[in-house]
């Protein structure tokens, strides 16, 4: 969240931010902000605040995301295509370097400069391309199979956009990117608001 | 999360689940599960567990999401198209009934059965169609303008897929759907894991 807020400020041409304003923008209390940022090695300058670029750099370093992560995407449907075309990924250091699908009609197609490759070749391509993260954008009923290919290829971090739980062995991290969680949350809040 | 897990179980043909198994699947402790589900009015059956369908119904009722929510989508780029084509939305009760864009080349185009309409007509269409939620899928620099159109149309709940913070008046709920948060989290975990 801090990175998102700070990159937004930077986009608006702001180079410096006070912890109070940062706190308000993030909806976090100022003492929590100071504690969090101290953890990243950033203490701010009294009377000035934080330098936005320095803060972004420090947070990214602390999280280990100040470098390029090569990603494989499995499932070249509508969502997969949207992600392959999403310029923001490259800006954030996440380079999708392999696109995989098991549909023979999709294999060989070029999407956003990448040739779609059969999912069975994931292991071989992962080694060749130095892929470290996997992105699952299959329909829910094919998510586990996509996951198995990624795990078999030795990938330790998976982003699952499919609305399905998947099982992974120990040592593999899964993050669920679940749109509907957010839709339910907004619908719930609107319902509450309308009862006031 | 409970809804996602339970719908997944249902997809796998399971009709009943114990609180222990549900707890393990959700990575939540069993006493928390029992507390949460009691809040939804579901107490389970001793020796049997919870009926999956009843539990889904109770949770959706408690959250006010056991009905159809009509949504407007603003920004018919790659991501917007992916969401418009995403069959899962309709299954979950979120019907995207209006697609808006300010690009004259997109206005009039039909995407997933919807004619793209000029964003300036959002207010008028919101009233006609009974739209309650807005979905922003514009580039970041146009998110605030899209938001302003939605707020002006009287919409109280916004899902923002654009990687940009937006400002809304009191009484309007915004949920940020931020892919990159999840990417950073996975990258961070993989980095930690590789240091073991």
TrEMBL record, chains A, B:
Q: Which residues bind DNA?
A: 1-40
State the SMART domains in the record.
Answer: CoA_binding (SM00881)
* Keyword terms of this UniProt record: Cytoplasm, DNA-binding, NAD, Repressor, Transcription, Transcription regulation
Entry keyword annotation includes Transcription: yes
- Entry superkingdom: Bacteria
Coiled-coil regions, chain positions: none
Q: Which InterPro entries match?
A: CoA-bd, NAD(P)-bd_dom_sf, Rex_actinobacterial-type, Rex_DNA-bd_C_dom, Tscrpt_rep_Rex, WH-like_DNA-bd_sf, WH_DNA-bd_sf
Please list the residues that bind NAD(+): 75-80
Question: Its quaternary structure?
Answer: Homodimer.
* Described purpose of this protein according to its UniProt entry: Modulates transcription in response to changes in cellular NADH/NAD(+) redox state.
Protein name as it appears in the record: Redox-sensing transcriptional repressor Rex
Taxonomic path: Bacteria, Pseudomonadati, Thermodesulfobacteriota, Desulfovibrionia, Desulfovibrionales
